[in-house]
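Before our next group meeting I need something from you. Please put the record directly below this note.
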Amino acid sequence: MSKKLREFGELAIVDSIRKRFRDFRPRALRGIGDDAAVIIPSPGSRWLVTTDLLIEKVHFDLAFTPPRDLGFKSLTVNLSDIAAMGGVPRYAFLGLGLPAGLSRDFLNEFFAGWARAARRYETNLAGGDLSRAPAVFIAVTVMGETLPSGFIGRDGARPGDGVFVSGYPGESALGWEYLSRGKRRDPAGRRWIRKHLVPEPRLWLGQELSRRKLAHSLMDLSDGLVLDLQRLARESGVAIEIEAGRIKLPAGFAASARKVGRDPLRLALTGGEDYELIFTAPRGKWSELEKLSRSLKLPLQRIGIVKAGKPGVTVKDLLGKIMTLPEGGYEHFIEDY
């Protein structure tokens, strides 16, 4: 039987973490073990810094979230923010609040998942903090660097730009529906559940958009397609028009959505936690984006257009009529878990 964290103590836990990540690259001059990390940026780059919280019963439920997947996701959702700036992740800092009665196996599995993500995306765990807490509380800060080509923000969309999204929006939300309804072992939900539990940040896409100067604006898709596009429209001071008929759904998605009583299009428009990228690009770059899509083996869907006008998002149906936007998207302090 696995021992509880109360049987170890902070110093022993920190030492085990330090040993696990000792050989990671890139290396900080000083990392875990000192009062502060000492790191050096690459010549000619600028730092990118992002922070996210994951809180038990708000962002995840341990009843159906394996600790290994939780560790992986804790890092990758932050890496998605670096991808959304066209940057390269370098260092991560982890704050953990843990119940004393949690098993040591939980911590081992959590860090196994974190390490898998860290190695895959070459991100060094350079420090953090541990505390006792009534529930699992995870705070992650990631430092990344810009490429020599610079960064891409949310504020550069221009009238005439095409609106693009990577992958298939709504898959993660569909996975959540299966998990929350106790259908984790339903074969119809396997793909969507995996998308929800183990999101992959689109770092290489973001870097190529920056390196080749293919996009005017860029952000990640975390709180729902319409809601996040509203944020991009507001930051850029433009209107965005989405054509519902252009949103492609992956094979089996519609049938799986209906199986759990959800409308497929609504999920695509409002489902959260996809961690894909949404961006706008000038018409002269569209053919190059098609080539990039093929080389990355990643769908890049052109789903709409940027227009001059009052900042906001409209969605048109197959007949060109403006749809009444379904409620959805995640907003903290408004939504219940």
Q: What stands out?
A: The two ends are 32 Å apart (CA to CA).
